[in-house]
Amino acid sequence: MTTDIDGFAGRLKRRENGGMISGWVGIPDAMLVNHLAQEDFDAVVLDMQHGMWDMETAASGIAYVRLAGKPAVARIPVGDFAAASRLLDAGASAIIAPMINSADDARALVKATKYPPLGERSWGPSLALNHFGLAAEDYLQSANSLTVTIAMVETRTALDAIDEILAVDGIDGVFVGPSDLSIALSNGARLAPNSAAIDQALATVLTRCRAHGKAICAFGSDGDRAGQYLKLGVDLVIAGTETAQLRTGARAAIQTARNVIQS
Ligand code: 3PY
Ligand code: MG
Fold it and tell me: Which residues face 72 on adjacent strands?
């Protein structure tokens, strides 16, 4: 196994190359993620919250991301902490948990994703042992630092509790969800992920993450937004979903062809 895979947690904290850029995939197809993972992404997220992955397709997806030499990250459905354990068992390098609104939510997440003394993750990392290339004893000793537990901050309640969430031992970082946060901050009036209100909230979260020595990640709807986040100091960003990238690429190819006809 390459250190790229095993060193994901360390790379996230060191901010090599000005921060990481991850793919984001909702279509539950292992071959699709393998194609995307060939690009210069630092990781690929399988989105089980709004994407259509189930446990079986996610386990294959993780394997196909790893086949491309990249770490696989999984976003679980809201509150499905049992899935978080299973995805780590399947070889995920990181778990992103949506709607973590309190220290209690954060502790429940850690309980499922970290072995004692931090949590109560149950033993059974059969595929993870294969993917990380580790013997059982070595995986047990390193899993808590080798895998990353990320709490999503995407409500007003979570913003208010940011210090308590970040103070939970075993939470390695937070992930700002700008769409839900914009809906929450406007009391349901607006979907405005790229608004000034989100920029302001992100700046606060970034300051608090630095104070706690923890990572900050954020969802960018495209490369431009992702670049802005990186410039601000965000450690890991998304540069749009796979469907957006697919359609943008298709649109550009069609337009290029039409331009050639006219030239
Ligand atoms: C949000 O912006 O709310 C997210 O969850 C990112 O996918
Ligand atoms: Mg969200």
Answer: 44
